[in-house]
Structures are given as C-alpha cells and as structure tokens.
Amino acid sequence: MLTSIAGQSVIVTGGSKGIGKGIAKVFAARGANVVVAARGLADAEATVNEIRAGGGTAIAHAADVSDWASVEGLVARTLEAFGTVDVLCANAGAFPQKKIIELTPEDWDQVLATNLKSTFLCVKACIPSFEKAGKGRVVVTSSITGPITGYPGWSHYGASKAGQLGFLRTAAMELARYNTTINAVLPGNIITEGLQDLGQSYLDGMAKAIPLKRLGRVEDIGYAALFLASQEASYITGQTIVVDGGQILPESAEAIDSI
User: Please, which contacts does 49-56 make with residues 24 or more away whose CB atoms are closer than 8 Å?
Assistant: First the structure.
C-alpha cells in the first residue's frame, strides 16, 4: 500500500483524453486534487465532470503548453485553487503521422513544441512552488517510440520523446536542490482515441506483436505515474519505466510465434 496522495495537487497536461485522462482519473480516485489541462476547455470540463461524478476533486483549465504565458497561467490557477503544486504530470503530446519526405518544417516545429518544449516550460513554471514547499514530483509521459523503437511517419514524434529523456536526466540533477524528482513513463501501445484512429488492423497487428497479446489501458500508465509520484519513490529520479506488455523484448516475429 502506497502512502496516501490524498489532498495533494496534481497538474495533468493533455488531461482531457487518452493517457492523460487515465492519469487524471487514477490520481483523483486516490483523493488528489487534479487540474485537468488541455487546449480545449470543453473536453477538459467533460473529464472533470466524470471525475466529480466518481467522487473526485478536479478543475478544468484551458492551456497551450507550448506557450510560456499560458503555462504560467496554468500554474497560477493551480496555486489559486489548491495552494501548491505537488505533482506535475507532463503528458501533453501530439503524434500526427507523416513521413519525412512529406513532413514540413512547420509540422516538425509544432510537434516538438507540443511534446518537448512544453515539458521544459511546465517544469520551469513549477519550480518556484516546489522550492517553497521543499518537495515535488514530476512524471513525464515519453514513449517507447524514439527512445527505444522507431516507426515510419513518426520521426518528429520520436525525436521529441527521445528529447524528453535527455532533458529529464539533467533536470533530475537541477531539481534535486528542491527535493524534487523527475522520472518518465514510456508507454507502448495503449488503447486511446488517437490510437483507435489508426484503424482496427493496426490495433490487431500491434496486439499480435506484444508478448501479453493485448494493448495496454490508460490506467496502466496512470498507476505507473502514481508510483513515481509516491513517497515510496522518493529516492528514484532521472529514471524511466517501460510500460508496454513486453513489446520491446522479442528479437523477431519467430520469437513471438514461439510463445
């Protein structure tokens, strides 16, 4: 049993859908005060309504996490509502599929801003609160794509996710003075609205390539984030945890077939 996280304030960027929504609901179910941040206020409010219907505490906030002023506003709203920022779940991300030959510089910049620049901005904005409280937790949603694997059409996405890990290793050293840890969860293929848009044949093919023979749930990532935000994980920083059902383990299709 992990030490209770009840009463702590948790920012979840990209919290209105997919993995972010799963993270927000896992924290709220354990008594945390959750700020669901997303570009679209209506989507964020819909997630908040679900959390409240389940007895949780949450507020919605519209934010563009690639914009410094918007991120500052997100942190200010959290402090106004709950007094502290105890946990930052830097989850916001975009993954439009487009191969390099078709990729424009603008496409590249947009994905890097949404996925990588936002991680830096959100961490930077939370530091004063971490320093004042004398503690803090940051959990970054990276991916197996980029740091470990590759997939055609996701060069910009993979670069952003690998970049997050480069950032967190130095950030772990700089945040240590504030008694704050930063770690990353690397999801494999998780069932989300975005993944479903890739089609059932893609989903079926991915499931066949996973030793556990199924795609992950958003809650699987939420539970990993919850552990990294816990008191029990207080001596873990600058690290990554892969949550992929064993997807990166087989060295060939024959290895999967022999299971």
Answer: 50/25, 51/24, 51/25, 54/25, 54/28, 54/29, 56/25, 56/28, 56/29, 56/31, 56/32
